[in-house]
Fold these 4 entries.
Entry 1:
Amino acid sequence: MKLKLKIWRQKSKTSKGKFEIYHVDANEHMSFLEMLDVLNEQLVAEKKEPVAFEHDCREGICGTCGMVINGRPHGLLQGTTTCQLHMRFFKDGDTIVIEPYKAKAFPVIKDLVVDRSPLDKIIQAGGFISINTGQAQDANNTPIEKDISSKAFDAAACIGCGACVAACPNGAAMLFTSAKISHLGLLPQGSVETDRRVMRMVVQMDKEGFGSCSNIGACEVECPKEIKLTNIARMNRYYYKSAFASDN
Amino acid sequence: MELKGNVPQGQLKEKWIEYRSKMNLVAPNNKRNIEIIVVGTGLAGASAASTLAELGYQVKAFTYHDSPRRAHSIAAQGGINAAKNYANDGDSIWRLFYDTIKGGDYRSREANVYRLAEVSNNIIDQATAQGVPFARDYGGLLDNRSFGGVQVSRTFYARGQTGQQLLLGAYSSLSRQVAKGQVQMFTRQEMLDLVLIDGKARGIITRDLLTGELKRHAAHAVVLATGGYGNTYFLSTNAMFSNATAAWRAAKRGAFFANPCFVQIHPTCIPQSGDYQSKLTLMSESLRNDGRVWVPRHKEDAQAIREGRKTPQDIAEADRYYYLEERYPAFGNLVPRDVASRAAKVACDQGLGVNQTGKAVYLDFESAIYRYGKSKAHVEGYENPDKATIIKFGEEVIAEKYGNLFEMYEKITGDDPYKTPMKIYPAVHYTMGGLWVDYNLQSNIPGLFVAGEANFSDHGANRLGASALMQGLADGYFVLPYTIGTFLADEIRTPKFDVSLPEFARAERETKERIEKLMNIGGNQTVDSFHKRLGKVMWEYVGVARNAENLKKAIEEIKEIRKDFYEDLYIPGSADGINPELEKATKVADFLELGELMAYDALNRNESCGGHFREEYQTEEGEALRDDKNFAYVAAWEWEDNGNHVMHKEPLKFEFVELKTRSYK
């Protein structure tokens, strides 16, 4: 299949970017990133600079890849990372527009590469259970209801790719933050710290320049791991409980 | 030179406990003044960095990713072993130890493996306490499943994302220490050299992947937790950037590289579909709990399938060759990985392969769907369910167990594995070899410690499924934080090192020269074109089956590729900034040397053991023929640029297990 690619090129954080047009021959079995590999091999052979994009595991789990494809983070396919999107979902003659994530908290570093380190800062603020190595009791001492554990897992499945932020018109990191807060808060071993955790993570989220939630729900639609909006509701509940607790 | 493993004396069961109780310690007030560099933030690196920080050391952690949550440990699907015996099926520390030693074909150190089994239970406790959502049953307790090469259920799992959940657990512990200021986190920094001062590892040189700047970092000790070298083969199940550079740079500074030829080729990967392919994707071994591996019994049927004239459903039951079940009735589809991979290759070499390239076998869930469906229909109160109902229920059970794997398979191939069998083929997955370490996980360079897949120590010639996560976390949480004290206890009077020392300047200069050399070749071929050439040689000659003639050919051809690489490589752009082609080039330059050493080691090892199968050494039935008399040793290599690599032997002494022919029949 012959494709026309309109790709955002930007040399550095401070320089101005623009779209460039490229043509590439792909086949339907390729993944989207393999299609970009083909383009880059072509560019290097022409002694031009390849398009910078991030990727690593190419199995949809490391969360490194992520770009906006035809206006949607990770492209059109529901519950799928860019690396798992395959070319059979495109047609011969298609024009594909490829841009970096656009969000205030994620400055562009080069071409399609953005800085997502603010997400790590949110985790550092409280996205953990405070236990040192060696302090654990036997794993079966605390039974956990299967459904609760499963719900916690659904939230823990977040890969930290940042698509939720890119999808949000406000550039909010509510889905990301609430997923971690839900994962840990739902489990008995993590619930001990919920009050402190939710306050600290929310404060950090604001500090990093992420926007506020206005219940649009684009984050849930674009999340490659299908993390649910109900996590945001849960985070808000925890937050109000913590904020209005009488001894605070 | 004969190498010493520094294994403590005493009974196997008491070695670690005794040793731990008597080793020298570093007092808390001194820990505060000691700096440790940890390179890599996968399971081994993140767990080591966070635990060392908890103990009070000043830790500097490095990753080339944008975040410490991305390392390839994250992609491990199936599970993590532990000897909890929650399944009440006769498991014990001894049995886990024994299975691992036997699974590794008696080419690992007894005491290390026993210690691994011993701490395995602590890992499950620790991970659970961190909030890792392991699978549970309705009573709220942890659930287990089986993996290859064992007859008990000891594998803990978190759906098909066990590695992800364990890594995120370690990452959360690490993040907690970063927030406390105990760990200084360096992201997007790639280690390009090791710095030695007076023969001890005291620092590293990194390249900032955003600015291209070379930076010097000093510490009292250096821990490498930088993963394996499977990407030497170009195509593997490793992540795109998984590489050997940190370990290989240490080797170039004098660290010995042990058993480089021990490479695990995983039997259940999605077959290659074209030349553009960038990597291969694993389908978890857990699928072999329920999937049955087969090919058509007759060549004509296989050919008809390859040509699209027949589908797998057209092949009658009697005409299906369930080769693992037939050849290895005791373990069936759950034979260890090396055995399953070889059997797949043999079947395809006989012309029985089932995709266009002839290099694929089926992994079929039809009978599992039927079996589970019947049982669930019964539970749901159906007395005589029809076939459609059984299949509906069966698919539900399978979806619950392997849903995400089935989805991934469908996304990649476009085939629905609920309706038609998966097609799978072996691919490079893990490397058992690695930097040589003693019982303390210390390399032959004092102060250089190596953890996780990057070291060679626990898996011998073949790793059992669900043991990589176990070893990475054992090293990082429960072994290295103790054993590093044996070195550091003598360093409490050593002041912090200044990066302006001449040793740092020299290492930085040499790194800069290496980069300039690559940038200035100014040829016409891309890095990938060389990497693909190397990969092809490695797969053909140093792959599932090897022989002396091919290995010699491999060594010559790799030298040839290396020569071409330095004459005709082209890297666009400059070294001062993001340059993915340059990043690839530094890695491939190292693979081009390590690949040669792998072939060299394979040629030296005149026996078949585990993943190392030499065609000259096999039984009449085609099983591996080990030679304990001559090869029960670790081959630790010292690289020489002139090609005369020097081997140091560490004899493997088996005091507590009897060496037996590994049989899964």
Entry 2:
Amino acid sequence: MNNIIVMPMMLPVLIGIILFFLRPYIKAQRVLSLLTLLANIGISVYVLQQIQQNGIMRLDFGGWEPPFGILFVADSFSILLVLTASIVAAACLIYSFSSVEPSFEKNFYYSFVLFLIAGVNGSFLTGDIFNLYVCFEIMLLASYVLIAFGGRKGQLRESIKYVIINVVSSWIFLVAIAYLYGVIGTLNMAHISERIAEVGQTPTLTVISVVLLTVFGLKAGLFLYFWLPGSYSTPITPVAALFGALLTKVGIYAMFRVFTLMFYHEQQITHTLIGIMAALTLIGGSIGAVAYKDLRLVASYNVVIAVGFILVGLAVATPAAIEGSIYYLIHDIIIKALLFLLVGIMIAVSGQTKMDDISGLIKNHPLLGWLFFLTTLSLAGIPPLSGFIGKVLIGEGAVGAGAYVLLALAFISSIFVLYSLMRIFLTSFWGETIISQDEEVPVRKGWLVSTCILAVGTIALGLGAEPMAIYIQDAAETLLNPQIYIDAVLGSN
Amino acid sequence: METLVTILAGVLVTVATYLLLSKSLIRVIIGTAILTHAGHLLIMTLAKLKTGTVPIVGEGNPVDPLPQALILTSIVIGFAVTAVSLVLAYRTYQELGTDKLDKLRGDPDE
């Protein structure tokens, strides 16, 4: 019965392998990969309903009861993220159909996108910390290939940096797991949490938690984001959108899991550290977002700001703030994909990457212009769009915890976000139209369809805050009460 | 015994760090491979080195099989990552005509 929760990871892997054998048949590849993601959406909606009725679901692989075997655990937090990731990936895939060159499609592009999704979903669902490392690696290996698709000089250069940074950070992850196993003697996340609660969070364990924080900081771009803008601004548009939407979010998810489930006893050390890192990320990201004129770099720095913003919620760790963080995480997955896709369309249409070289796009592309405006408002947090609720809740949590510095930085960064994107809107969409209509690359239907799906997503998430609240409150409750998770995993069937 | 293996892991990390900081791309990749192996030694050491039999009930004093399983998984991943990065390095060499990291920087506008 619970077998269904392995599907979000299993389906993409299987279909990805099948696609290897369908190499010449591009149509079949497209249809199969889109169907896989649609199936994932359906499965995650179903599982989400099941969790509301029957509580957290788990699947012990090979019948090995926890804590001895590896297992998948589906709580509301994981499944909400799987659902959002599937929707966004489907939109990026639709964009790929009309933008990716046939030569890429014949070279296993769709297979690697599916492997990336498999890794992302696996990371969200796993209940074992070593399995988390493995799923991270699946995701990263696929991303190493995807980032180099196209093989332009700049791309290869950034790929090398990206690969080396990630190999080293994965190594630190491995070392942290080794330490954890040496001290605690288990790898099951619920079991680790239980044992830490029994023996108390000793200084050794706190050090290990900080090592893990370093790893996830590197992956999520929390303070250690120096590699991020370069790497996220070189791949082809749909890949950049997938990276911007999903990869950093997996790091954030891991941070939430680790610091709410296992290492929640010494909050004045770990959570203060997260708070300081989030503050520095907000400052650095804001400076970066207004400093550059390259559209893709501005978009990448917006990713950095969002990471800082979400982690403010974890740093204050009040119920409202955690709820806000979950809300904002979901919002950010959708809106960052939309932002990267729109920026990609602007570059494709005008052939320029600097905002000063693009002018008056709105005359020939009114829909594109208004979509960009909508994205700007949503990112800045104007109601009724989806950014609003998350910001209000995180702000409420920060006020409740008395973290006024973080509160101020978080909201000042929103102004920087608004400014950096408004600047693009004013210079690139308004003004005199410098390119005549027949010189321009026409906007293809698939580009607008995919961006419209995401735009509808952000409006729906904003207007549908009330029905969504049930799931998000459930997710926050599980995060705040580790015992619920532990009982679900270690309790008998 | 644990001390000796820990020192060995330390030596490997030192070597790997030296290689990672060098300018040649191939050396950097070899550095990452060595780094991973230092990690494997660490996993084994932290789970305590001891003699014993296979972990089957009734076979005497069994050892913990989990570290071996972790290391095996990690070796496979390390192999795949090294393979991918070698291909990437070769493509970079073909495309940019150099394997020196300081020359890879090139023109910032390109």
Entry 3:
Amino acid sequence: METVLISVLNGLVYGMLLFMLASGLTLIFSMMGVLNFAHASIYMLGAYLAFTVSRFVGFFPALIIAPILCGLIGAAIEIWGLRRVHHNGHIAELLFTFGLVFIIQRLVQMTWGMLPMAYRVPASLDFPLFVLYGANFPAYRGFMLLVSAAMLLGTWLLLKKTRIGLIIQAALTHPQMVSSLGHNVPRVFTTVFAGGCLLAGLAGVIGGNYQTTEPGMADSMGPIVFVVVVFGGLGSLAGCFVASIIMGMIQTFAVVIDYSIADLLRPMGLMLTGDTLLTEVLTVPVARIGALLPFVMMVTILFFRPRGLMGTRDT
Amino acid sequence: MTSSIRRLCFAFVALSMLVAGRPAGAEDTIKIGYVDPFSGPFASGGDEFLKVFGYILQKVNADGGALGKKFELVPFDDKLQPAEALIALKNITDQNIPFVMQCTGSNVGAALVDGVSKHNARNPDNRVLYLNCGALATELTNEQCDFWQFRFTGNVEMRAVARIKALPMDVKKVYLLNQDYLFGQSIQHDTRKWLAKLRPDIEVVGDELMPFGKVQDFSSYVAKIKASGAQSVVTGNYNRDLNLLIKAAVDDGLNVRFDTYLAHLIGGPTAIGSAGEHRLTSITEFHPNVPVELKKPDAEAYSNGWRANHDTDFSEVPFLTMLQMLARAIDTAGSTDALKVALALEDMKATDLVGSPVQMRKVDHQLLMPYYAASFTKDVKYDAEKTGFGWKTDFIASTDDLTLPTVCKMKRPAS
């Protein structure tokens, strides 16, 4: 029981971090129809910028400044990069963001070096919030939950309850119409791209010291974020939220499960003896392949429901 | 648009002609082809090693080099891919460079052992010697040993013996957590084997392989470790797989030792920081406090010479030993011919930077060398990576301690 409760909490924290990252990606996708490969790179930039900024002005100002810087970078990428390749079609845009991944990675390595940064949780949040069955729940994780929940609420309010949100939503589905009504659709595109990058940057600020700020962090986060977006349904914010939480839970719970397929078969009278071709596949405990499960789930959902959990269009 | 593309093309052509037209370096140096990852996720290691070799070569060349010539390193990026390493090897042999050196990754090491062996069989007049300074898999000097490979660093099994001998006697329950790939599995295997031999009183309460570099949240592992009642986590994890584990344990308030193999690797102390105090140990080839503890001012000065200009620590003493032994072997052989140098290296005895005896064993071409088990503490003269914490030796596994049996049956060249 206690393991379950602790795992639920940890899964929630990790799931919310995933959501922060994935929500920006899915927003950008629904707007431009393009998967931004460089999204996780912006996440990494957010962490590095936060580290550098927080050395001068402290963590909390950095929490505001670094995401804004990321948003500005995102706007620049959209205006001077994506917009120019846009008329060559989606493949060109896709390849453009794909190239950005390597450029940003190398720039980060050249600016900050190859080694991990000493980006730490601020002292004011570095204490156990409460003790649960003898395990500390760090205050910083509570803070992460708080920030991501605030972000979720903020994004939802902005999209559903404001005029800006109305125009964005309209531009999603009927760009020509919105344009005819006198709105500057390219500027809406820029705003959404910058907004998505801002969210990624925010995730980087609070994820960078929760994990480690190092040049490999984009690589480790990138694939899983795509899985979340595809699984939740491309372009669906609600689906993205559900998928993030599911992925967070799966990854934390998988570690606790020490059973393998062979253990499942045993009660049915099937015993595995000796080395067969399948011994390795059947006896590997779930814990060892936990990191693979999200990908298995993505493949499965593409099979049975190509539009994802709550998506509105097919992948 | 088109004109700018054309201009770009001209620029590239001009650039390539410039590169091709460059003289192929002065001929009076002894070249060593250095193959390691300089791009990709493991570039931090290769990058740092290249700088360290620069520092070491200054000394080796100032000491006279070999045959009156200086050594020169020619780096090749293998991206930690065996296929890329073999392309680099082809490049090295095409340029008639007699030595290929590689310090990261057993998969690459295994490919090089095989590639060098085949090349030498086919091209007896253009042989190369493979200097292994970091492919750690035990097999490379056992089942897969080869005459043309010399390993100048301790293999996994030697490290496992040092690791287990260094465990305090009051540790009775350990949890093994390793990465699910060749290196992690070999650490797991050798740790279990030598735990049973050397410390039968220790109970293994958990033995787990985790996905390599894929785990984002270690709190579930921490919960498992806590539930097992382990006093110590013995792990071959490194980089983020170790940093995140220790961070999660500290966040959770879990009070166990982390008896690691590789926590001292570059970037480790910075990423772990104060979380490692009093709980983190590692198995090092050398650390800046070894000369202080052994009272070797020369070695201390040498280590400080690096420290003065870098944020990292000088811990690559085996690299220095390797190049010193190579220089001596070339002098003895009177040439850089791979076969003659190899014969000169066999059974060569030497002393390392702090004066400990080392020996290149003839039967398997494994360097027999000491290891320093150290813990992470404030109570040291030199801190690691300017973190305020440094390594303090708890136990020295001597060269004799680490002289382990080998199953190598080496095929020796006829001439």
Entry 4:
Amino acid sequence: MAVVECRQVSKWYGTAKVLDDVDFTANEAEIHVILGENGAGKSTLVKVIAGLVSPDRGQVLLRGAALKAGSVAAAQAQGVALIHQEPRLFPDLSVMENIWIDQGSGWWSRRRFRLSRMAGRTRELLGRLGSSVSPDARVAFLSVADQQMIDIAAALRKDLKVLIVDEPTASLTPAEVGNLFRVMRELRDQGVAVIFIGHRLEEILEISDRITVLRDGRLVRTLSRDEANEDELIRLMIGRDIEAVAHAPTAAVGEVLLSVRDLSAAGHFSDVSLDVRRGEIVGIGGLVGSGRSEVLEAIFGVRPRSTGVVSVGGRSIGSLAQAVASGMGLVPEDRGRYGLVLLSSVLNNVSAPNLDLTSRLGIRRPRREQRNAQDIVARLRIRVSSLAQLAGQLSGGNQQRVSLGKWLVRDLDILLVDEPTRGVDIGSKREIHGLLRQFADSGKAVLLVSSDMRELLEVPDRILVMREGRITGGLSIDEADEESVMRLAAGIAA
Amino acid sequence: MSHTHAAAGDLVEVGGLPWRARIGPYLPSLVVLVAAVVYGSVSSPYFLNFSALLVNTGRYVEIGLLALALTVVIINGDIDLSVASNLAVSAATMGLLVESGVGIEVAAFAALAVGLGLGAINALFIVGLGLPSLVVTLATLALYRGLAQILLGDRAVTGYPEAFIGVDQISLLGDWARVPLPLVLFLVVALLFSVLLTRTNFGLACYLTGSNQQAARFSGIKTDHTRAVAFMLCGLMAGAAAIMLTSRLGSTLSNVGLGLELLAITVVVLGGTDIFGGRGTIIGTVIALFAVMAVRESLVISNVNGQVQDAVVGVILILAIIVPLTVAHLRERSSQRRLR
């Protein structure tokens, strides 16, 4: 039976049509995956269902009854819960407080709010999800996976009919993904309609009962899992075929360009030494929290070092200014916080690291800045309405391209990239991989941090693995496979 | 331009903001300006005496100078509450030097140097030690004012040379349009600040820093340097305002310019600068200065007393922030209803 029914739902943001006559149904007791490139309208569609966004045309029926458009409360009353990619919790409150945060505010309901009983119920809810966090733990100290479980626990409190999970697995470890999927399956078996937005095709094929593909705001097709395979899904998603980056070990690897010796940052990592040669992509694998991002930041000079030397072409690099001057660029993992100024224009974002090239005596030269930005937009095929568009208005994949592209304006030698394809659609993903390969092949060096196992095994020429702040081993691309990387990352002897 | 783009085919447009978004930030101050002028001319036939109005601008130029520099500081995401106290120390230094026989030129230069120096001390604490600017400048607000009191005690310094006193009485363009010199100086400085924000690397660095300091830093912008320079500019403008104010008053007391920082911040915020940083313009600040001036002058001419004037300015500031937000909210709701 259809629990969620979207009828001819359309939505514009300004002049951009993000949803175009979408007819979407999710049945009870199924896991329904929504798939599509960034900007295809997936998040908008689920927000319409959850009442966060009111459609400009069309309507949503929940169990046959029309949903009051744009009312989160009405959707919640119908048993709809939306779990965001980054859980929206109150970091300074406890787990229990977060779960019961919307427990009425009237005098009567507050009287009934008995802490001791709530702690028990909280534990029971978390137990159903296989989570062992203490109800008293402060949310700020929990992992993203635990936070997602708290979000789901809060949803389970009520009579849950529709669980929507928006791109949850990007920041989870394989074990955490496994647990999430187990929970999703259990809820499905209890009759809940689970709507799941995902990117990793292997995952999707594993978990889904049905798959709906969106492209440019339109529903392309809904297919059952038996009809689906990876190539078909990619074709439906992007409307054309894209070749994976064929891994061709580089013929000409040149001299050492970036050299790091005994680098440490107190509390994050210690004694990291590595070399990256011209023409080479070096990958860094490891679990989230093993210190990989911090290493990149310390090399780039945005994180204080306690000891160690970083040198480029033999010259020692001490500060961020020197790092940029020596031809280094960093594409950070969190593009909204560190990679881009979201409230500023695409033009300004591209110009920011390149002002030394475009200005004379500190005076900006707008024509040059515009030419550079136009060049990057064309080269990286960034979808923008104009250069004056705010970076925050772009889709994730396009934001990532701007974050990367702003460095490509310069004649860069070393690119430090941290999770360059997280939350990015598969088309963008392969194009970004292609750009990195092309960059390295032109005699430059790339240091790539990735939690995406396929990316880590396909893109780099060799792999270093970190565990708990130390490099635990190096693997050539021929000897590296999922198992050997995980052994080093988890510290299991071969 | 657009022609060459079309020819190039795949080049994306440079683009710009629609006019409504461009004019939006100035709307509150423009409305206040027009309302005050209408009110003033209705309540008194003398209000729209153009040359009298122009002469009165001299009294607002000091606030204007502080507001210009504060615009930069606030765009950076910081605040400087100590500007008026800084002004007092600069003025006191100048007064003491003149009393001890130093030439007025040297004394005025010293006022600028002291202003700059005190701004640099703010920067040292805020940028160097990473303390919040609100707290640091709240402390130096008291500290600098106290310093001025230590320097001058209860005395009034009066020994300024005749030639230095009365800069606001000097006017350009003769009798038919008496444009006071301070107004001209203010507009020139405003133009310089506008160029600084819109045409220089420093300006872009300010906007990016105020919008997202971490992302700006990760893009290689020297955010510390940018913020420190803004505080020093603020100090420099406090010194300049001290010279103007002293010339206008002809004497210096330790309580000179008391409370001017709040008026200056009012002007900046009314002018559409986001108090949380990242957005704002010099033109907005200039318009807002004239708006506040028109409000005050129209209240003066209809015999409203000083305390009530302060209250009115406060109410206008609140309305200037609330009304546009409410209008935007209502517009969004009505457009949603229409589409449904």
